Amino acid sequence: MSNTKQDTATRILDRALALINTRGLMDVGIREVAKDLGMRPGNVTYYFPTKEHLVLALMERLRSLNASTVPTGEVRSVKEFLDRYRQMFRNQTAFVGLVVNMVNVMRYPSLARTYRTIEIERMGAITQAISELVAQGQLKHISDVRIARLTSTISLVSRFWTSEASLHPEQKINDAVMEHYMRLLATALKPVCTKAGRKSLKEAFAS
Amino acid sequence: MSNTKQDTATRILDRALALINTRGLMDVGIREVAKDLGMRPGNVTYYFPTKEHLVLALMERLRSLNASTVPTGEVRSVKEFLDRYRQMFRNQTAFVGLVVNMVNVMRYPSLARTYRTIEIERMGAITQAISELVAQGQLKHISDVRIARLTSTISLVSRFWTSEASLHPEQKINDAVMEHYMRLLATALKPVCTKAGRKSLKEAFAS
DNA sequence: CTTGGTATTGGACATTGTCCTATATCAGCT
DNA sequence: AGCTGATATAGGACAATGTCCAATACCAAG
Question: Most CB atoms within 10 A, among A39, A41, A85, B113?
């Protein structure tokens, strides 16, 4: 074989993600991933010494996917803001097996450590975006307390919508479900929108 | 010993809940619970054949706690509505080890089956409460779609606030944190409140 | 004081994550 | 070509876990 280390590691991650997305993080073992790839469990641990390393690598993939697909820089309109979240939502569906289980993923010490800072930045980014939208005349001037609450709501919805959806197993996660939770974000924003903001918000849902 | 079956089963549940609340569902094993009670693991499985049975019993406890502490019947004001949720929030903190991990709890087939119906009732109860508040002149008349979205937001926040809080490990879950998430519920309600509704909402937070 | 059900022990089993040593494979050098 | 060192894979071990089962202890009723 001409498999380089990179190749095999990638194949392991691909297969592991696919299995985790269908069967769930807790029900997918190293042995199952290995078997599916026609290799021995010991070989998987050669590339990823522990399951924690594997999950960490997958989360890094999600982070990198977000970095490459979600625009950064100043947010100029409510539509832009929501479009960024729509892209993040899409990315989350590709890693749904991990994202639904965020609470357990974060129990891995290395992930908790790594994402402690990311977490703070995440909240900070939302708060900043809201400030920018206020400056742009898209949102009304509101108190810091209300900004904090809006931030918290957006954070909670955007992080746990897949978990909530997973509790209604009769409906698979698809674009319609995703749009439903996008609407919840919009609903949270709407009361603090200016007239211009409301117009932009409407455009975010013009199919 | 004069331990009856009921006694020992209760002691097992008490200990298991305490351990799960501090160390998390996935990190607490039958052996640990048994050891803490000075008995053998096999004896725990005598009362609860599988971990699933144990978790099922604990969830039944939570359900029963809610049944005995959260008023039922028609909701007459926004304050009443929020007070019910405040009580549910309190109850959730007593079972936080399970509630933060709802996604995994529901992976147990028997729990998924049992709570499928409870889940539907839960959503239905929120929707009905909103209708009642509209009838009471506490909330504005809003479309079914908006009712559905409000229901979804309330459901999501009230189910996953502990999970969100657990991702900020620097702050332990306490009354202040609980009130923060209560405020998120209130913020979701406020835009659809009538004048009377807003007054009642304010009373819900008068310490 | 026997008896029958309840409670508890002690140990087995399969499965899991992890680890370690031996072997295979292959690229680069002479 | 043949050696060599690093990389890759196999094979099997280990401890811990959930689960199960047979043997024993206990205890209340007859």
Answer: A85
B39 CA: nearest nucleotide by C1': C8
Phi, psi of B193 (to 5 degrees): -75, 145
Question: Dihedral of CA A65/A22/A37/A57: which sign?
Answer: positive
* C-alpha distances out from residue B2 to A47, B6, B8, B131, Å: 55, 11, 10, 52
CB atoms within 10 A of CB B68: 8
Q: At what angle do helices A78-94 and A144-166 cross, to 10 degrees?
A: 30
Report, in ranges, which bases of strand D sit under 7 Å from a protein C-beta.
7-13, 16-22, 26-28
Please list the residues that pair with A139 across neighbouring strands: A193
What is the set of domains in chain A, with CATH numbers?
1-49 (1.10.10.60), 61-204 (1.10.357.10)
How many other C-beta atoms are found inside a 10 Å radius of the C-beta of residue B6?
9
Alpha helices in chain B (DSSP H): 5-23, 30-36, 41-47, 51-69, 78-94, 96-99, 102-105, 109-135, 144-166, 175-189, 195-204
A43 beta carbon to strand D: under 7 Å: yes
Residue pLDDT, tens place only, A60-75: 999 999 999 999 999 9
Question: pLDDT tens digit string along B76-120?
Answer: 999 999 999 999 999 999 999 999 999 999 999 999 999 888 888
